[in-house]
């Protein structure tokens, strides 16, 4: 099938030598996504405050331009050399994680960067020889224009309420169309467009930036952020996609409502509780941005529902924090996800002092959850549309009934209770620790009996306690919880087999089996249904690939996971918004094999999970600083002959890894930087897909060479004891391959037999 050839074909190339971090120029040159003349593709960069720039390659003004909050403040720009326009549609263009650059036929080079945390952008035009250089700034509806010395000022107009200032690093003349031309022939001119709440603020910002090297400074700062953690494998395409996923996820970190993470662009520019904490590890933990991670957690805690008198949502964090709507709390999993990521943050950073703040959040949360939602089995009940599958018909009945007890909610509930018990122990509240641990044990005992029949895992329990066995990916979240196993490993293995065999395509995992009568093959299909009917009834959600890779790698199926990651990487680099991932894909490709992105055109948790997989699931780095351990649970694809990684943790500490595959052996060279002596623990995958444990101590500045293979291990040439950790479940799982998508023929799918079939089922209360 064509989509397999288009997305899955690897570029044949010999393994490249793996080096430590490249320099700034080499790093961005490797990341640049080149676009042929005439190709218009969307790209987007963020300012990490409350704005983003949406542009299109080969176009001066297509796209929203620079949007701050909900107002477009800058449309785009054009350039001229000696009065002759540079035709971008005929030029070679490269998209970069801070903006773009265009090389024109005459040798002129233009580059635009949105400047992080500056409310400003910079445009640089360079020419091989001295020339009159012109930058034409484009505004849809500028306010009153004036000039104050070296600065052009534009009064607020429209909804933004912001003043605009334009400055340059060369003397210039400007006309009424806001076209800036160098006052004399030069080889380079940089123009800064800055915004502020007052004319003085905007003017000062523009002049200060113009006097410096704003684009160079932005490149350096972004380079430092993106390479604080670093992974370079023998697959150059994967490296490029991984770095783009890190850059894209970083773009969503904003300050609009306090430090937070936007869910998606263009219409999810809010801080959603569930989305924020699903995205947090891939956005801020694997990248070593621990201060930001703490700030996100602390900021969300400010919005916890502590209203009196107590309501049914007491103790929850919001479903959504928004400037335009009231804060709402209709999410059952937002607070469990937050507690899970608070614990993971503490494990990465060693910040035990933060545990007290999270304990203060846990107390009212568990009070409310136990009083309002815990049932007689110790499980967590919830409303029908309060999980991540939350779409409703006209804000009423759910399109995808998940109540009252969804499978992944119970795994999250168990994790939240275990996290809460640990937090209580740290605070000296041993009574609460015992209570919450006891409830976690009760939930665990009840769960297996109610959800698992020895063959199939239920996606939810209905109100009458019957099991809904529709095949959805949610069951895979049973495999990826951070504490000890919620369900036995053999059950996890069979769950992995069942879900992957039925749902996993080469390009992503479906939200519902294509063999289910409720399956919708396309998201937007207005001849047959509203798009929300298909939202969780077959559509491919990018973030679901994250826990799928985690599950596959746990049981030694990393080569299938790797094929999926390679294909997702091709999507990041060439499908839809360049350098980013959409919210969704249609479940089935088009007749020509092409994939269709849908939903938001840039989605935070999609790229965040791609980044997380690289560090946590392939390299397998999962620090446990609470017991002074740097844990590795690697699952190295056979295609990786070597890799280099720099892995941050703690307070400016890191461990460097240089991996080589030598025959059937794996050689790990490890060096610890900063801090104190640490225990290094490995969970090694054996040839039969079982796992064995080993551990050794490593001091700062010390190097160790670990060699594993053939059931043996040595450190610096000395034999090391291996202990059995996880049995092989290859016999339970068997061979796993991608599902073959059906062809799209409307008559083959019950939901397309007539208009609004699913809506009728829901409204007649016949949804099962």
Automatic annotation (TrEMBL):
The keyword Signal applies. Keywords: Signal. Residues 253-611 form the Glycogen debranching enzyme C-terminal domain. Residues 1-19 form the signal peptide. InterPro entries: 6-hairpin_glycosidase_sf, 6hp_glycosidase-like_sf, AGL/Gdb1, GDE_C. SUPFAM superfamilies: Six-hairpin glycosidases (SSF48208). This is Glycogen debranching protein. It comes from Massilia aquatica.
